[in-house]
Amino acid sequence: MWSFAIGIFLIYLHPQSFMLTAIYSLIVNLFGTCLAGPIGRKVDTLPRLTTMRTALIIQNSSVAAAAILIVVAFQLQISYYCNEPLFFVFVTLVTILGIVSTLSSSATKMIMERDWIVVLSKQDTDMLSEINAMMRRIDQVCLLLAPIVAGAFMTALDTTWAAGLIAVWNVVSFFFEYTLLRTVHTRVPELAQKETPPEENGKDLVASSSSQIIKQTVTSYFGNVKIFLSQDVAIIGFCLSLVYLTVLGFSAITVGYLRLNNVKDLYIAITMAVGACFGVFGTVCYTPFTKKFGVSASGALGAVTLAISYGVCLASVPFSKDHLKSIPVPDVSDGGCGDDIRRPIRNFWTYLDPNYA
After folding, report:
1. What is the 3-state secondary structure (H, E, C) of 62-113?
2. CA distance 94 to 66
3. Residue-wise over 24-54: b if at least 16 C-beta within 10 A, else e?
4. What pLDDT digit, counting tens, does each position of 134-164 carry?
5. Cα–Cα distance, 6 to 252 (Å, whole number)
6. pLDDT exceeds 50 at position 203
7. Helices (H), 14-47
8. CA 301 from centre of chain
9. What one-character-per-residue DSSP string does 251-282 give?
10. CB 270 within 8 A of CB 26
C-alpha cells in the first residue's frame, strides 16, 4: 500500500508539481541500487530467521514512521506553500525512512528469493521454478489488492485517515508475517543449518572508517558489474533492463503524475489492480508454457508481448493528453494556508482544487 500511497501523499504536500515525487523516487532507488550488494553479502553471513526478523522489523517500522509523519504534516497543514521550513524537514525525514524501508525490503526479498526458496526446493530445478512462479503470483495478488484498499480509503475517508491506517497495518502485519515465516523455519530443519562463505569466516564486514566503507562499496560494485558482463546473458539482461527505463510501471512518479492531473485515487488503484491481474495471469501461464515450449521460447514470447504492450501505450499518448485536466494553480498570496491553518486537510485540498471530490 505504501508504494502506491506515497506518490499521492507527496503530491498533496507539494501541489501543482510532481518534482518532489520524482526526487523522492530517484534518491530512494539510487540508494537501493548502490547498497543492495553490501546488504546481500552481510545477509549471507547471518542466521536466516534472525536476519529475516530484523529486516521485517526495520521495514515495517520505517514505513509506519513515515506514514505517521505524513499524518502529522497533514494535520499541521504543512505544504510547499505553507510552513516551508517544516516542509523540508518532513520531506527529508520521509525520504530517509523511505531509503531505510527500501533497503530492508531488498534484504527481505534476497533472503526469501535467493536463500529460503533454494533450500525449500532441495536443489530441484523444476520445484524451484514452480515455487518462484508461486511467489510471484502471491506478490501480484498483493499488488492487486493493496492499491484498491488504499485507494478506497483515500476516496471514502481522507488522506490523513489513509496514512494512519497504513501505519497501523504495517505494525499489525509484522506479527502475521513473522509468525508465518517462523512456522516455515520450524517445519524445515534445513533452514536452521547455514554454511557461512569461507571468505567471510571470522571477518567483520563493517569497516573501521567511512573511507573504507566507501572503498568497499565502490570496489564491490565494479566487481559485480565485471561478473555480470562475463555472463552469457549479459547483453540480454542489459537490453531487458532498458525496457524498464519507463514510467509505465506505476511507480510513485507515475501515481503522482496521474493525481496531479486530477485522476481520482480509486481510479488509479483500479488501473494498478488491472495490471496486477495480468501479472497473476502471467505467473499462471509460466509453468505450462516452459514445459511445452521451453524457457527460451517462453521468454521470447514474453518479450514480444511486452514490446507490443508498450507500443500500444506509446501510441495512445497523443490521444489521451487532452483528456487530462490539470489542477488549477492555487492563490498563494497568503502562503497557501488560508485564514485557519488548523482546518481539516480535505478542506485545504478543496481550496486548492474546487473540483476535488
Report:
1. HHHHHHHHHHHHHHCCCECCECHHHHHHHHHHHHHHHHHHHHHHHHHHHHHH
2. 5
3. bbeebeebbeebbebbbeebbebebbebbbb
4. 887 787 777 777 777 777 777 777 778 888 8
5. 6
6. no
7. 19-44
8. 27
9. -HHHHHHHHHTT--HHHHHHHHHHHHHHHHHH
10. no
